[in-house]
Amino acid sequence: MTRDPSQVSIMAKKFPQVQPGGSLILAWQIKGKKVLVVGGGEVAAGRILNCLNADAAVTVVAPSTGLNDEVRHRIAEKQVTHVDRVFEPSDLDGAEMVLVAVDDPAASTAIWKLCKEKKIPANIADVPPECDFYFGSVHRDGPLQIMVSTNGKGPRIAALIRKFIAKSLPENAGNAIETIGELRVKLRKIAPTSEDSPKRMTWMSKVSDTYNWQEMCELTEEDMDNLLLFYPANKVPDFDILRALRGEKNTDVSKLDVFDGSFGFSVGA
Amino acid sequence: MTRDPSQVSIMAKKFPQVQPGGSLILAWQIKGKKVLVVGGGEVAAGRILNCLNADAAVTVVAPSTGLNDEVRHRIAEKQVTHVDRVFEPSDLDGAEMVLVAVDDPAASTAIWKLCKEKKIPANIADVPPECDFYFGSVHRDGPLQIMVSTNGKGPRIAALIRKFIAKSLPENAGNAIETIGELRVKLRKIAPTSEDSPKRMTWMSKVSDTYNWQEMCELTEEDMDNLLLFYPANKVPDFDILRALRGEKNTDVSKLDVFDGSFGFSVGA
Question: Which residues form the Siroheme synthase central domain (chains A, B) (predicted)?
């Protein structure tokens, strides 16, 4: 293909530059799947919690003599299946992910090789070349997960940044995501048919485009009900209007002054 | 195992509660590995950039007639390998990950099934049950990657939150991670032997514990050199002291008033 060089440089400016050296950050779906954790120390305890938070079926292989208190607690509470001995190759049967955290480099490497033969994604703690993936520092608030990775350059800094972000987020951050989900459900009750679907989607996009993140976190049940009054007219009021409407009963939106345009509606896409 | 119920409730308080319903967020290592992207539209363009940012060897299978401008640009710049036709099963040979973004549910499902047979991790865009993993909205700043996932509850909100975080972060966030890495390298020059290793590690931890994230982002080359003067005494000065030392030449740390303790050193672990 022949190309005009001047055109190439215009294109290069138009599209995002590649920034090499990162990882591919993924939200792995492990619900109900068998994750094998080999080891029962502090690192294993962290891995187990990560997996349980993602609804995995966790099996821990480790002699009960060396268990960390948290791991012991997860076993006692039947949150995980415990195999009370050292690793055996048959432990890999049915496993969809393997996390190794034992102080035995030779055993670790042997497990890594088995996983590669069986094509099971694996992470050998503290041995980067024997990892299909790394973990990061994760902030969790309901459906919201924020993961900080320094790409191996500083796990302690990742934790610092995670704490910084957790402090910066609006108080209702996790809840706001549920709220928007709820708004979608309420909308579907008002406009249930599949013919309504394009208008529903356009209106929901308009909502996301009109309010900033802090405003979304502030949305109350009452705000949502008031907001939905504007759906038939395919409008989304400024947040100030929702605030002004608080406490008003049986608002008749068609009689509101807001429709004279003076409130600056977000109309159109 | 019999347990005293009162003891169980104490233990339950001691350890983090499981918060089900999340994903397992991972930093996948795909450097130099073959990722197959099926499709050449807008979604494919986003996937390709994600993979290139993680140094993957990307192959795009899509007829050149339907290519998005960004995908066309990546091909023209030889950032990806292009196979100019629709998907064929042999495309999976050697692939370590498969990302499908085509408007053809039947073809997508067929590719998903092949991937499962071959145990290749795969993501079929817009078909959650045919995904080993989801993508999120990623902020990137050098070695720092922050990924926001709403666990499928609102990709637009994820992008809003990502923008909010990007705005909240100190300006030098990515750079600060490099700085700490640099500090570690400089320290190793001062204290190179393996006998120095425990002291080096303790001191570096002390550095992370003494400064908050904003202070770390503010650390200059000069600050680092001054900071290293405190290493022989195994001390880490408050950040105010580093600020005060700026512009001083040939600081003799042993003659500084700071050692009378009045500056509030971080001593001990």
Answer: 141-167
